[in-house]
Amino acid sequence: MHFSFQSHLFRHSISFRSTIGEYDILTLITIQSSVLNLIIAQGLDYPWVVYPPLSWRNVVSNSFGSLEAAGVKPILVNGNFVCGFHCTSTAETCFFAISFFNTSFAAANADYSSPSPQIVWSANRNNPVQLEAELEFTQQGDLVLQDAHGALVWSTDTRAARLNLTNQGNLLLFDKTNKVLWQSFDHPTDSLLPGQRLVYGLKLRSSLSESNSSQGLYSYTIDENGHLVAYMEPDPSQVYYKSSIAVSRTKTGQFYAEFEEIALRMFEYRDTGVPNLTLIKLGSDGLSIVKFKLD
């Protein structure tokens, strides 16, 4: 199965003319990358759902699979999404994260020079851990990340009965009645996935740099009037992009935007649609990157 990825970037507000008219929007740049193949992670021997109590320690792996070669120590795998510890090559910086895993055809056949997975969510982006850190799904149903010394780094503060990674990249905790107690889609970092909403009060926050995933200088959110805006932290008045049309409202009046709606507003596609969209990511330079999956 072959996939081609395109990236669409927007820069600071500049008026330009195109076949769809003149808009005071952000300059659109298109980049075509090399053709990649997608590894189908379901064929690997990892679960997509687990039950408490369980724990996973971040240790040097003896496995030589494509995931481990890319610095990922899997805990849950579903479709092309992997949840687990994601570490730099020296393992000095590790995150409990979800990634969308891509690899070349050669890498899928045991050539482990594959591209790095694309992290789409992280629990501890501002507080990385190292080797010997531990993730615990406690008897009480709380998901807890501790560093190598046992200090608390992050937790969901839940009493869950099941942990589930969906094939859309959403990590969920359910109670015994199958009610969702917590989900990663409600806690976005710098990325949005199909099926995910951005609601008023939440925002995408860029990374500091391509090599440092701590929170950076740029945010993308919905303002009090329902417009999608991008601005420089820490001052929301430093807006460098604003959509011309307000987003939708829930029945209770809360502003929200579906993944597809954000892409349409961001890039003024209007009636042309956005085919096979796989990811929206706010880059470390404040540009929005959209990746497409093409048949």
UniProtKB/TrEMBL annotation:
Keyword list, A-Z: Disulfide bond, Glycoprotein, Signal
Keyword Magnesium: no
Pfam families xref list: B_lectin
Span of domain Bulb-type lectin: 61-186
CDD domains assigned to the protein according to its UniProt record, in alphabetical order: B_lectin
InterPro entries per UniProt: Bulb-type_lectin_dom, Bulb-type_lectin_dom_sf, G-type_lectin_kinases/EP1-like
Keyword Disulfide bond (UniProt): yes
Protein origin, superkingdom: Eukaryota
PANTHER family: G-TYPE LECTIN S-RECEPTOR-LIKE SERINE/THREONINE-PROTEIN KINASE SD2-5 (PTHR47976), RECEPTOR-LIKE SERINE_THREONINE-PROTEIN KINASE (PTHR47976:SF30)
The protein's name in its UniProt record: Bulb-type lectin domain-containing protein
